[in-house]
Design a protein that fits this description.
The strands form four sheets. Strands 14-11-13-12-18-19-16 form a seven-stranded antiparallel beta sheet. Strands 5, 6, 7, 8, 9 and 10 form a six-stranded antiparallel beta sheet that branches. Strands 1-2-4-3 form a four-stranded mixed beta sheet. It is globular, with a radius of gyration of 22 Å. The protein is of the alpha+beta class. Among the domains are: 92 residues, Uridine Diphospho-n-acetylenolpyruvylglucosamine Reductase, domain 2 (2-Layer Sandwich); 181 residues, Vanillyl-alcohol Oxidase, Chain A, domain 3. The structure holds flavin-adenine dinucleotide (FAD). Its EC number is 1.-.-.-.
Length: 469
């Protein structure tokens, strides 16, 4: 019997790998350990909890038949399963908590169909590849994460929530953004189930707990010639106010609006020759045809336009995409230089209020540097603060969170690896009912749900009855 890499299972993994044939497997411990990690190390709390959690074997299915074989064999052996796409999640979603089988989807990566306003792709398709294929036909994804070069579309739908495009097109969960998806059950005869319309939210953002997404159909929008824009301001409140004005504008298109404290910008060495030092930054993507209106808006808001670049100019200058200074990439830019940084996820009062942001700044302290993303939520422009926090102790981190909360800024815990802990806050009984239907033995990533142990003995219908009316 081969040793268990995780130290948590007693299965014979060599024999298990043989049972999976012809599916390709990886059993080399170093490679299995590498595929047991994601970006949980953003959080010192999660890093301490998860850095020694590993799987035992990786399977790399190339087809849905291969995937069905993996799920059938795991079901037979009661093997814990963790689904992995690009491994760019921030909360340890793709970390096996109980050891077991890791199923990496990146070879199930075909783009199946591009049509008027939609794209259908296999779950393991790389998001940048999808966007490239769409661009050739005059389309682009309505929403995509700043990690598009690594992330898979299935991982984004299972683990993500919003991203580049959300300022115009809303959240992934909003009607019409995920048009349909297929997910496979874990049983002795794994089957694909189709979820359409509102039903996609039975599976979306369930962290791979309640079925393996095999295929997704997503909304696309006409491709535009996006200009990456960087404008700087003397005060953070000015940058934030300008961000709000752009996000609301009725004559300027936008795919991204993001504001960053000047102290964070000092950690963007690639931009050093391009933006004014010690100024607060607003990063955006604006279509070429609206650039004059954008210039007028920045002037009116008291800012300076430091950099505008088309996609070709960006490549010539050798600069990253502007969205690599936004969303969780902002934090990554800082972490590249100093691993003592971490971050929080915080909601802000609606409608966005630059005065409230300004009033909060001195209360937060010098170890908290603000960064806001603008997005459309339920038809209204909202902002999320993803501040850099210079981590010292967990007590201090919780104190900062308390300061936000006491001042009317709700905190969505970024330092917890439970699906109910962060954005969702409460148990999603729809997700759990579908887990019971699709994964009756609870093999898929079960320890990531705090509520699953309380409901796993119930029928799917009884779990659904717990949904608050
Ligand atoms: C620098 C940085 C920037 C980021 N920016 C954004 C952003 O702009 N917007 C955003 O929403 N997130 C963002 N994230 C988080 C993350 O990148 C995205 O959610 C990403 O799309 C996840 O895709 P992935 O393929 O890497 O998924 P993984 O990390 O591999 O998986 C994520 C979750 O989905 C599950 N999963 C993966 N594939 C499947 C499948 N086929 N079926 C069922 N479950 C599956 C996994 O089990 C896991 O729970 C960022 C993270 C980093 C580190």
């Amino acid at each position: 019997m081969s040793d268990s890499i995780s130290g948590k299972t007693s299965l014979d993994w060599e024999a298990f790998a043989k049972d999976l044939a012809p599916v390709e497997t990886i059993s080399e411990p170093v490679l299995v350990k590498k595929r047991s990690r994601d970006f949980f190390w953003y959080s010192p709390i999660l890093n301490a909890q998860l850095r020694r959690s590993f799987g035992d074997l990786v399977a790399v299915p190339k087809t849905t038949e291969d995937l069905a074989q993996c799920l059938r064999v795991a079901f037979e052996h009661d093997a814990p399963i963790t689904i992995r796409g690009g491994g760019t999640g921030n909360y340890g979603q793709a970390v096996p908590m109980e050891g077991g089988l890791i199923i990496e989807t990146t070879r199930m990566n075909r783009i199946l169909e591009i049509g008027e306003g939609y794209v259908t792709a296999q779950a393991g398709a790389n998001i940048e590849e999808i966007n490239k294929a769409l661009h050739l036909q005059g389309w682009e994804l309505a929403i995509f994460p700043s990690t598009q070069d690594i992330a898979t579309i299935g991982g984004f739908i299972a683990g993500g929530s919003s991203g580049i495009g959300s300022v115009a097109n809303g959240m992934l969960r909003d009607a019409g953004n995920i048009l349909s998806l297929k997910a496979m059950s874990v049983s002795d005869t794994p089957t694909e189930n189709l979820f359409e319309g509102e039903a996609v939210n039975h599976i979306h953002h369930a962290w791979g707990l309640n079925g393996v997404i095999t295929e997704v159909t997503l909304r696309t929008v006409p491709h535009r010639n996006w200009i990456g824009c960087m404008a700087t301001f003397d005060t953070y409140a000015q940058a934030y106010q300008a961000g709000y004005a752009l996000a609301l504008s009725d004559n300027i298109g936008r795919k991204l609006v993001s504001t960053v404290d000047a102290r964070i910008c000092a950690y963007f060495p690639r931009l050093a020759d391009h933006i004014r030092p010690e100024k607060h930054l607003m990063t955006s993507l604006v279509p070429a045809e609206d650039i004059d209106a954008y210039r007028a808006l920045i002037k009116e808001q008291g800012g300076s336009i430091d950099l505008t670049m088309s996609e070709d100019e960006r490549k010539e200058m050798g600069l990253p995409h502007v969205f690599e200074f936004a969303y969780n990439h902002t934090t990554l830019q800082v972490l590249k230089a100093d691993r003592s940084a971490t971050y929080l996820q915080v909601g802000c009062p609606t409608p966005p209020d630059a005065k409230a942001i300004k009033a909060l700044r001195p209360k937060l302290g010098d170890d908290v540097w603000q960064h806001h993303e603008f997005a459309l939520l339920d038809g209204e422009i909202v902002t999320f603060d993803l501040p850099i926090v210079w981590y010292t102790t967990t007590e201090r981190l919780r104190k900062i969170e308390a300061t936000y909360t006491e001042n009317g800024f709700p905190v969505y815990d970024a330092h917890i690896c439970m699906v109910e802990g962060g954005g969702l806050k409460n148990a999603d009984y729809r997700h759990l009912a579908w887990k019971k239907r699709m994964d009756p033995k609870g093999l898929l990533n079960a320890p990531k749900s705090r509520e699953w142990p309380n409901v796993k003995h119930l029928s799917p219908e009884d779990i659904e009855a717990l949904i608050p009316s």
